[in-house]
Specification:
Shape: globular
Strand content: 25-35%
Helix content: 25-40%
Distance between the termini: 8 Å
Largest sheet: 4 strands, mixed
Number of strands: 6
């Protein structure tokens, strides 16, 4: 079984936890929490009421980013056909972490079930996060 999730918008990576000044307890920054919650809703739609997957999983994450407006037409064209790929922030592992945490309890029971992961970053006219989860 394969689950496919297409989440429109500029992909966001998991931010480092912040610490409360009063209690010194860690918390997830509000922007990250909101993005993960929205991604969770999109994954619920993709699951169509099915229970979370329980076995070993392979996950592929494709992050499609907008081409910078300041780039020349030649560079923009090269980026859109894949000759130039995003190499800056956000880090690929943090993109996977965002997906892992957002889909916990919805697509899978725990992201520890992921035994194989691929992460790709591209430029695109339509920014989105594309996630494919396959039961092994």
């Amino acid at each position: 079984m394969t689950i496919i999730i297409d989440f429109p918008g500029i992909p966001k990576a998991k931010e480092r936890p912040r610490f409360s000044r009063r209690s010194r307890r860690p918390y997830t920054p509000p922007q990250t929490a909101a993005y993960e919650q929205s991604l969770g809703w999109a994954s619920k739609l993709a699951m169509k009421g099915k229970a979370p997957l329980q076995g070993s999983l392979a996950v592929s994450v494709d992050a499609h980013f907008p081409v910078p407006q300041s780039w020349s037409k030649r560079d923009r064209a090269a980026a859109l056909i894949g000759e130039i790929r995003p190499k800056g922030k956000p880090d690929s592992d943090n993109l996977l972490k965002t997906a892992g945490d957002a889909l916990n309890g919805i697509v899978w029971l725990d992201d520890a079930q992921i035994v194989d992961a691929d992460i790709h970053k591209y430029y695109s006219v339509k920014p989105l996060l594309h996630i494919e989860v396959t039961e092994l």
